[in-house]
Amino acid sequence: MTFAGLRNDALLRALRREPATRTPVWLMRQAGRYLPEYRATRARAGSFLTMAKTPELACEVTLQPLARFDLDAAILFSDILTVPDAMGLGLYFVEGEGPKFQRPVRSAADVAKLAVPDMGRELRYVMDAVALCRRELSGRVPLIGFSGSPWTLACYMIEGGGSDNFSIIKAMMLDDPATLHRLLDVVTDAVIAYLWAQRDAGAQALQVFDTWGGVLAPHHYREFSLPYLTRIAEALRAGRQKTEDRGQNGEQPGNLQQEPLHDAEHIPLILFGKGNAPYLEELAASGADAIGVDWLVSLEDARRRTQGRVGLQGNLDPAVLYGSPAAIGAEVRRTLADYARGGDGSLTGLVFNLGHGLSPDMDPEHVRALVDAVHAHPQA
Amino acid sequence: MTFAGLRNDALLRALRREPATRTPVWLMRQAGRYLPEYRATRARAGSFLTMAKTPELACEVTLQPLARFDLDAAILFSDILTVPDAMGLGLYFVEGEGPKFQRPVRSAADVAKLAVPDMGRELRYVMDAVALCRRELSGRVPLIGFSGSPWTLACYMIEGGGSDNFSIIKAMMLDDPATLHRLLDVVTDAVIAYLWAQRDAGAQALQVFDTWGGVLAPHHYREFSLPYLTRIAEALRAGRQKTEDRGQNGEQPGNLQQEPLHDAEHIPLILFGKGNAPYLEELAASGADAIGVDWLVSLEDARRRTQGRVGLQGNLDPAVLYGSPAAIGAEVRRTLADYARGGDGSLTGLVFNLGHGLSPDMDPEHVRALVDAVHAHPQA
């Protein structure tokens, strides 16, 4: 299908590291509980999963923050655990406790049963939501699709939910690393297929969330997270498993092709990781277009260390939103100045974001102050 | 009073960066719930606070891990929140929720009421426990005293307990930094007096826990945590507020003296911080004797960056204890090899520890495997 032309390409220009006329800004979890209209949709849906699995509702909340704020991108409303759910683990939510799996992966036999899900069947609802969002956006701003990273998905799959200490996956990492690698391997294949399918459905940029890479010691990060992130970036760049565009409503599974990708068909990939600052040089060499960083590194440092090889996304401490609008403005300006100082003084290659997601107790008016402060700042 | 001569000085030699004959090892939270004998004492005491505030019970649990494992130091069993408790905030514990304060500090008026507590009165129970531990240790290994860092104590004092996002203290940091600095100032004075008093009571080394410094963006860490850590290190080195030894049972408040410290009277200070890896160069210049690091940096890197200016303490991922004894041994050897590779190949200046504390669900036999693996490793 064809979509309307893109009227605000600030995000894509930044991800291609083209001179900026406007610093793009979007915010992780910008469609979320801090918005009363989100809470209203959530109440109507009855459950988080119903909302995520119903394309019309997912699209509705995806667009909500754009109606309020001058944001430069939409990010699909979904959950990072859709892929393991589609692999048969049985995702469910307990109020106040976060996501859980009915059937966590604990043994080599459990791992052997895992397979890449069929994107047109088990994950069709995601692709339908992508296509619907893209249509509804009508070229206003680009749509970002996303996935959890293999390591982060493995954490939830093995622990069976969130964890304070990752004791089960780390025990497997130490005592049966081959089984963990087999799991990461199939999950990586699934993530690549999932990102391709989102691209085919209409996503114009992609982000991988490596939320838990930062709990690993450096030698473990380099063995269990980084190589799989790199494989994803390489696969998306190489054009493996390129699929033809689907029919308008996504009914037809795409035709798999192994042909290389033409340059014009490449859509940018952002690798976001909490705690990824020690690995910026390696991440910049992964093949990704941009690296998303948390607030524990200055953008001056991050830019200097990546030397314009990639774009950078970040990195205001989300807790800055608990401060006054004046303080938020000052911290935004400091962040922009940091980035400028790390390079040629310009803001080329910067996507403004938080270092992590928005929280439910944040004030939407403070979010507005942030977005407006980014756009009020001169470009150089 | 005089104490028995020290028979195992491996810790103090490492902290002075003298050639090692044995790599000293102790473990954060080595006296804790993972030990059945600790749980028995805790049950007899009735509450955590009774145990911490009764010198005989605090001493009993301080010594318990030494009866089991070949550890090279004892660390006083206490809580980092004793100082704010003595400042009148009303420390209490809710089962399963961690520490809380009845009267958190929220305003400039609250801060104005804070004063350095009298170490011989409000914190006498800590000093009595230190003296008793030192006597009971009878020179077997050195006794480490400790305090929370000013920033970390301020987090609890302002949030009123633990926090996921530090929203209250970060809002104060942004909107009323002068008030936060006044709080940090008086807390720093209190921490310095507290560490001196522990030294006077018999502590042979000191550690400051900056548990929450790592939640700060770099410019905030350098404004709200690092300078106060440096002030503590400088004060302990300069000999400010040196007090005469107390009477045997600590009844007499020490005589305050402003005289400089003689070299022989200096006792080593370890600055531990979760997430402090980005600041190792600055911490090495603080005046501290050693820097304790978490597991998110390799000791090879840490040693190279600090160039023998300080000792290093750490840094096994505590979750390694969920692995098998064989895996624990392998990770211990890797950690030691990392440290050796970062310098002249020796283990001089290394205090082996975890990157954070032991957890209640850890197996004491795995702790034994760790301690024994450190001591089984050749020195160079």
Q: How would you describe what is shown here?
A:
Two copies of one chain form a homodimer. With 380 residues, chain A is of the alpha/beta class. Chain A contains 16 helices and eleven strands. Chain A has a seven-stranded parallel beta sheet with strand order 1-4-5-8-9-10-11. Chain A is globular and about 55 Å long. Mean pLDDT of chain A is 93; it is low at 241-258.
Rounded to the nearest angstrom, the radius of gyration of chain A is 20 Å
Overall pLDDT metric of chain A? 93
Helix content of chain A: 40-55%
Give the percentage of residues in beta strands of chain A.
5-15%
End-to-end gap of chain A: 39 Å
Brief description of this entry?
2 copies of one chain form a homodimer. Chain A is built from 16 helices and 11 strands. Chain A is an alpha/beta fold and 380 residues long.
Layout of strands and helices, then pairs:
2 copies of one chain form a homodimer.
Chain A: H1 10-15, H2 36-45, H3 48-53, H4 55-68, E1 74-75, H5 82-89, E2 91-94, E3 98-101, H6 108-112, H7 124-137, E4 143-148, H8 150-159, H9 167-175, H10 177-201, E5 205-210, H11 218-224, H12 226-238, E6 242-243, E7 256-257, E8 269-273, H13 280-284, E9 290-293, H14 299-306, E10 311-316, H15 325-341, E11 350-354, H16 364-376
Parallel strand pairs in A: 1-4, 4-5, 5-8, 8-9, 9-10, 10-11
Antiparallel strand pairs in A: 2-3, 6-7
Helix pairs in contact in A: 2-4, 4-7, 7-10, 8-10, 9-10, 10-12, 14-15, 15-16
Quickly list its features.
homodimer, 380 residues, alpha/beta, 7-stranded parallel sheet, two-stranded antiparallel ribbon, 16 helices, 11 strands, 45% helix, globular
